[in-house]
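User: Here's a chain of 307 residues. Predict its fold as tokens.
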Amino acid sequence: MRPDDRPRAEADRPRAAGTWHRTEDLDAYLARAGDFLRSRPALHTLALTVTEGLRTRGPHTYGEGQPVFGLLEREGTIRAAYFQTPPRLLQLTGLTAEEADSLAAHLAEVGRPLPGVGADRESAAAFAEAWRARTGADVTLQERKRLYRLGTLTVPESVPKGRARVAAEPDRAQLVRWHDEFAAAVGEGAAGNSGDWADARIAYGGVTFWETPDGTPVSMAGVTPTVAGQVRVAPVYTPAHLRGRGYAGAVTAEVSRAARVAGADEVLLFTDLANPTSNALYQRIGYRPVADFAVYGFSDQAREPSE
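Assistant: Prediction complete.
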């Protein structure tokens, strides 16, 4: 872990929490918080890629609700930020316990319902506790995740027969079907529009298939657009009946290599810590831990933006 990747320790931050500002104006939010988000592109990968998706594909890219954004300012300096794309959960940058409590008070006063929160492990836990104390909501730890960064890429020793191929317009129906299946597998149900997702990914070559020698796609790996020098590998999906054959490792290694060749400074991905197979796979390819994250649900099911 690099020093800049550590969530800010409480001793490193001012004692006064500062003032929270809320807006539905994405351009205004990025004008004020953009430099802060770009200052730590790995830790802020989700905020960077989701806001880029909203900027380029429209405000309802991740749901029908109106996105909201917020930032914490103290003496003219941005200290933290948040966003929410309803009906999905609230996403935070790193917070101290004091800042988490002040944010809970700010959002409770606004009166907007929250299905849950996602952030680095300590910040998510601090906000979840503050929200429970402020609102009486039931709080449940739903997922523990780990953010990885690509170090030295190591192609799997045993690569399955076949080849990698960037998905194109004739593959749209396949992409839509697999994105629907992926969303269902990770608990997102029908959230989002798989057709719009497929169109956006096709437009910039954002999904790669691994296909068998006869040309049949058997796995896919996507990458987000480059923002602040970082890209994130997401999603990686292999249909259940095709798993365990090395397809996911092969296609993930290929999109990681291609991202590096295209000039990405950082290639990132998230894993579910409850899945030891994927965590071991990505480490064999060359990914190294950056930070742990957590998702808490507040009374209802929480969901994250699917990239």
